[in-house]
Amino acid sequence: MTGEPMLQVAALRAGYLDTTVIRDLDLLVHTGEVAVLIGPNGHGKTTLLRAISGIIKPSAGRVLLEGQDVSGWPAERISTLGLVHAPQGDGLFGEMTVEENLLMGAFPSASWRNRRQEIARIYEQFPLVAARAGQRARTLSGGERRLVALGRALMRPSRIMLIDEPSLGLAPVAIDAVYQAIGNLKRSGATLVLVEENFTHVGAVADAVHIVEMGTIIASGPYAALSADPAIVRTYLGSL
Amino acid sequence: MAEELAPPAVLRAIEIRKDFGGLRAVADVSFEVGPGEVLGIAGPNGAGKTTLFDVVTGHTRATAGQVLLAGKAITSEPVHVRTRLGLARTFQQPTVARSLTVAENMLLAATFGRPRASVGGQHPRQVAAEWLEFVGLAGKAAVQSDLLGLFDRKSLMLGTALATSASAILLDEPFGGLSPAEIDRTVEIIGGVRARGLAVVCIEHVMRALTTIADRVIVMHHGAAFFEGTPAQMLADARVVEVYLGASHRAEGS
Predict the structure, then answer these.
(1) How many structural domains comprise chain B?
(2) Do B246 and A173 touch (CB under 8 A)?
């Protein structure tokens, strides 16, 4: 045990071309913790995940994984440290079958030799994916595609997993299955960073909540405290 | 007779069927929706909900069944003709002309989405400006639309659908990906659409939103509609809970 946090982000700046989206953002996620990012759309949650996983290169600041400075590393190198990112959209290969798409999740790593047992585990957790195993991905509905993409991200063991909106486009019964899988990951000791608006489901697994606004984190705290704060509930969690 | 007093349906779908090869994606689904009414459509992922929309709007051809708009059969009309007759829709993925500004997107819809014979009617610019204000984007009129965040892009897509002067509008997951505060705002906007007398059909998984806006809900599974009733009846239906809502909704309801 080094005592280093799983993820540390310090004074991070990132964006696209001449647009800065993330400004001087600091974030600490401890090993084994489930951290949830909330906040209005367009304020940088997705960009933050992309800068952590190396899909985009930060323009300033640092990203450390267990004390290792990975700032500016390409995504494929960062992933070798055990970081898995399930991004926005599904990114499936439309002409490949569902099972072939799942296999791609184990392709670039040592997990390839365990692929059959990983696939069996995913089929058990997501019966809807199992039912579509032999179908080409392009014939699936939007929600089914999201579920396959999440299954693909689960194909290799991760030390830290970033999931951009795990419940997006899913039926309530499918969200239950996704959050059971997230709960299993947490119990296995993985660290998770979720972008999620669905507080009904996230409550069972969340440890810390960070509110992202205007490209920086304006408030952080334990889930229990933030979800009990009337001002935060009114501003960020809606009135319904 | 009570039935004769009810307002006539704006949009009727009769026994809609859609087969893809050996797969029956939509199995003889019927619905009707009147002016100022919101019909919800729910069901597990892959149940055929979006395919039903695709058939109604003409994005895919029906294997069997009829679509009637204001009593007129439009089943074999192409998409753009259905649009000019008053049928509009939105998509799961926010679909806007990304190289155009917000105002240009609205003008595009108001110009080409409405019947050309509306001489003497409102000028497209006026129509576009009104609906732009309605969806809350008047302050961003000059912004190029690929710079918009998700909520604004979804609002713009809804605005362009409305700017076609539609009498019936199909919304495919209008709340997906929105923050709770944005969901509240979209509930208000759809309430305004209803108040203007449009017939609304809405596919949605965000149950707190759907149960707030819908008068009735149809639940689909394996292509077929197996439940129709009020949102309260839906939440209490054992089969809907089993195949769609799942354990956490059981817990919430108790």
Answers:
(1) 2
(2) yes
